[in-house]
Amino acid sequence: MRYLPLTADDRAAMLGVIGAASVDDLFADVPVPARLPGPLDLPAHQGEWEVEKAFRALAAKSLSPGEVPSFLGAGAYRHHIPASVDHLIQRSEFLTSYTPYQPEIAQGTLQHLFEFQTQVAMLTGMEVANASMYDGATACAEAVLMAKRQTRRPRAILSGGLHPHYRDCTRTMAGFVDHGVETLPLDLDGTEDLVAQLGKDVACVVVQYPDVLGRVRDLTALAEAVHAAGALLIVAVTEIVSLGALQPPGAMGADIVVAEGQSLGVPLSFGGPYVGLFATREKFLRQMPGRLCGETVDADGRRGYVLTLSAREQHIRREKATSNICTNAGLCALAFSIHLSLLGEAGYVRLAQINHGKAVQAADRLAAIPGVSLVNQGFFNEFTLKLPKDATLVVEALAKKRILAGVPGARLWPEDPQAANLLLVAVTELNDDGDVDALVAALAAEVK
Amino acid sequence: MLNRQGRATQPAAVPVTGPGADATFAGDAGSILGHRGLDHEERLIFEMGEEGRSGVDLPEPPKVESRLGGLARQGRIGLPGLAEPQVVRHFVRLSRRNYAIDLGLYPLGSCTMKHNPRLNEKMARLPGLGDVHPLQPQSTVQGALELIERLAGWIMTLTGMPAVAMSPAAGAHGELCGLMAIHAAHVAKGDARKRVLVPESAHGTNPATAALCGYTVDPIPATADGRIDLEAFRAKLGPDVAAVMLTNPNTCGLFERDVIAVAEGIHSVGGYFYCDGANFNAIVGRVRPGDLGIDAMHLNLHKTFSTPHGGGGPGSGPVVFSDALKDFAPLPFVRREGDAFRLVEDPREAPKSFGRMKGFHGQMGMFIRALAYMMSHGGDGLRQVAEDAVLAANYVMASLKDVMTPSFDGPCMHEALFDDRFLKDTGVTTLDFAKAMIDQGFHPMTMYFPLVVHGALLIEPTETESKDSIDGFVAVLRGLAEQAIACRGGQGDPAAFTEAPRLAPRRRLDETRAARTPVLRWKQPA
Ligand SMILES: Cc1ncc(COP(=O)(O)O)c(C=O)c1O
Predict the structure, then answer these.
(1) A210, A317, A323, B170: least CB-packed within 10 angstroms?
(2) Can you tell me the mean pLDDT for A175-199?
(3) Which residues line ligand 1 (CB under 6 A)?
(4) Closest chain B residue by Cα to residue A170
């Protein structure tokens, strides 16, 4: 077995030092009926090329978004990842190290986390950010829990414009505290009135920006109303590239910003692992979930970094911790930081402009198809179309023509009939004119 | 020998000066950390670069009228601009300030720092697996769904359990999954309960998770031999107990001998048995948790099944369930229907499910790596993994027990637990001892965990170390232990410990200052 260095002689010598007759002696504490006499009924070990062959066979069954025109979004976006990102995250010293518990020999990871926290705070327009959460959806749940602790109020109101996965994760993960969460239905015509929901017992209001249909809305007035009611405004961002073109939530009065960082540096990978971003105001620091990296000095007075404020965390506070999170999304956070560092301010802003520009062009062409209309006039790189027929069937039909047209509404709101004809379409820098031509032609033919 | 420029021509002639010059080296070759000429200081990325520069060439944006609803970003973000070589150099330099399993033995107990095969990385990047979108039509991702189903099959066989939830993102998230299923099961019986029993030796995530689900945590003491105190456990049982969370093998590196009695006890009051499976590496292929009476258990794919820790994640924490709990498992899940695979996402198809707990379907990238690991080992190799891991830990224990103080007698499982009795009266603490290891080129073991022994030092060598490697590690620890013991009664050189590390990229960092006046991000100097 290529990963197991011990030889039979080594094993015998080691047993000799231990003073055991056989390895079975070391398992003496296992109750007799639970001891397996031999290997389980599983395939035997295999060499590299045999394993590789099996995986290639599975991979070959997919229609890859990289190979066909693809307009899939709804919380996961296909962007170009510079080659050096994947090279750098595979450096042994990053890939194969643990959480930086020994800061003297983990300054690489720690300095990166400090840079990551700074980048996240900058993009979101917030004061502080943590060292990552599992993903955007779980970060959203953590934000609601934090708002309840901070305000000591029971109710959380989730806008119908929040991605259903975020809504559902928040409902499950924050469901045990006080009154759980209240969710508003999908709001197609944009008339949702969140301010009417406010009251003395409301801890927070959660909105998505741009929302799940792609709409962009100024949150300033909402933030003011939420603050006047003594509650916190939580803003979820599923497409982090959008903040290269849009006002950051922090500039509109958000108290907590959670985001999915996948768009920068992290491959689609069928939905995970991704990286949750979590940013807030300094005054809420002590209620933050997750790890925080801070600057300090070493015994020689040299600048260095450590994990800090851990009195919030499970390993110190146990049942009184602000969250149970331990392992987070370190390596995906690194990919995020490297990609963003490569882009720099100019590249990040331009990338956002390209996304927006291409989306505008595609939206106009798609909306010109007879029977197809645009649900939202304002958007970043994703918009929603209303089709004259069931969007799931259209998407399936286009997939047969090797076009991944977008995400049908029923995939996100299976129980809501008004979602049946909706199609969420995302356009990124990777979609060229040919992709849009193909989609327009195929969609026009399909809805005729 | 010096050359004409007065430079040394061989390492032995290099004068060693500065802090740490007098520290003990690992051997004739000098310290592993000896190449200080290549140790670059590196500024923060925000202290470099220039406005306008970018490491990515992008075309002109299309000229369109903005549809951003008047919300176009105003003002600078503050990101620096660098070309690709600068960024690459920055991160490569940072990388060199990290210890890693690829550099040496990484004995962090409870963390299972084993070799991370690169085949797994390659498989995770295959087009058709690594680049598929989570919401594309299911007919176009049958291979990906089949892969999840196949991994689930391996996990169920290895654990002897009838169901597995794949979506939890890490161990702690798996604990949450398990406890939420338990909560849902009690609620379904109209019997929401209050208390969860958690041994004092448990990992912090256990009580934190129970609290997140609204339970009161009731601690159970450990016996003198490092296991759950069965009498104390039984005394705490009652009709309001929802579950017990027992780690097995436990955090002292010991198999819970009374595990079956614990299962019977918790079931006798209508509670459920949650097992923390973070230490599954010790028993994979030798013991099936399903034979021990458990109802739910998470596996850390980033421990037992070698998906890389990546400096703190990502992980993956699938949870196996008994028949009693399986209907309460989260959405989504993959169902085989004839030759096809279907992802069940609609709550109406799983009315008892407690719901969704993760965006999309779980940590696919980790599933691919873990399955590649399992297939590489096969059923035979996985059993050998457990045997070699346990053998290595017992070998470390046997090789050090005369100089360090093992906390408990008898064989251990995959990790060897010592306490700080051997450091008594030396002026050297567990922390000092751990830091001195750094100057010898090793990452320290887990310190001060579990909490049930004083000044814990928990060593997990794993099965991927050669005997040579373990022997080198043991030799260093023996040397340090002897050196520490020589400090008893004010003798010896305690500074070699209390001042350590001296050869690392940084000496000890001021954690008090970091916490008192938190600086959590870079800011443009005023
Ligand atoms: C015993 C034990 N339980 C639970 C966990 C939590 O796992 P994770 O870090 O994957 O959330 C860990 C690891 O950190 C552990 O060692």
Answers:
(1) A317
(2) 90
(3) A 326-327; B 110, 170-172, 203, 205, 247, 251, 276, 278, 300, 315, 317
(4) B357
Which CATH number is A83-339's, of 1.10.3210.10, 3.40.710.10, 3.40.640.10, 3.30.420.40? 3.40.640.10
pLDDT of residue A356: 98
Judgement on whether residues B415 and B507 belong to the same structural domain of the protein:
yes
pLDDT category of residue B39 using cuts at 50, 70 and 90? confident
* Rounded Cα–Cα distance for residues A87 and A82 (Å): 9
* Phi, psi of A143, deg, nearest 5: -65, -40
B128 C-alpha to center of ligand 1: Å?
Answer: 31
- Looking at chain A, the whole-number percentage of residues with pLDDT higher than 70 is 100
- Phi, then psi, of B276 in degrees rounded to 5: -80, 115
Please report residues of A whose CB lies closer than 8 A to that of B205: 314, 324, 326
Give pLDDT tens digits for B395-436.
Answer: 999 999 999 999 999 899 999 999 999 999 999 999 999 999
Ligand 1, atom 10, residue with closest C-alpha: B171
**pLDDT digits over A60-75, tens only?**
999 999 999 999 999 9
| Distance from Cα B279 to the centre of ligand 1, integer Å | 9
Q: Which of A50, A344, A423, A281 is nearest to B81 (CA)?
A: A344
CA of B459 to the centre of ligand 1 (A): 16
Model pLDDT for residues B240-253, shown as the tens digit of each residue: 999 999 999 999 99
B277 Cα distance to chain centroid: 12
- H/E element holding A306? strand A303-308
User: Residue B194 maps to which CATH number?
Assistant: 3.40.640.10
**In Å, how far are A121, A335, B49, B214 from B78, measured between CA atoms?**
10, 19, 11, 42
**Residue to mutate (ligand 1; options B173, B175, B203; most atoms within 8 A of CB):** B203
Contact A329 B466 (CB under 8 A): no
The alpha helices in B189-218, defined as continuous H runs, are 205-212
For B302-349, write each residue's pLDDT tens digit.
999 999 999 999 999 999 999 999 999 999 999 999 999 999 999 999
The kind and range of the H/E element at B174 are helix B171-188
Sign of CA dihedral B88, B89, B91, B96: positive
Do B217 and B248 belong together in one domain? yes
Give me B68's structure tokens: 């951003």
Closest CB to B132: pick one of A15, A62, A119. Answer: A62
Residue in this structure with the two tokens 């450096």, named with its chain if needed? A91
Furthest CA-CA distance within chain B: 88
Nearest CA in chain A to B120: A52
pLDDT at B4: 59
Query: Are B349 and B490 part of one and the same domain?
Result: no
d(CA A154, CA A103): 39
Contacts of B116 in chain A (CB under 8 A): 95-96
Least Cα separation, residue B8 to chain A (angstroms):
28
The CATH number of the structural domain formed by A344-447 is: 3.90.1150.10
Tokens of A109: 């990871």
CB contacts, 8 Å: B356 with chain A? 165, 168-169, 172
Distance (angstroms) between ligand 1 centre and the Cα of A99 equals: 11
With beta carbons under 8 A apart, name residues in chain B contacting A273: 169, 313-314, 316, 363-366
Kindly provide the residue ranges of all beta strands, DSSP E only, lying in B176-304, ordered along the sequence.
195-199, 216-220, 241-247, 272-276, 296-298
A330: helix, strand or coil: helix
CB A331 within 8 A of CB A94: yes
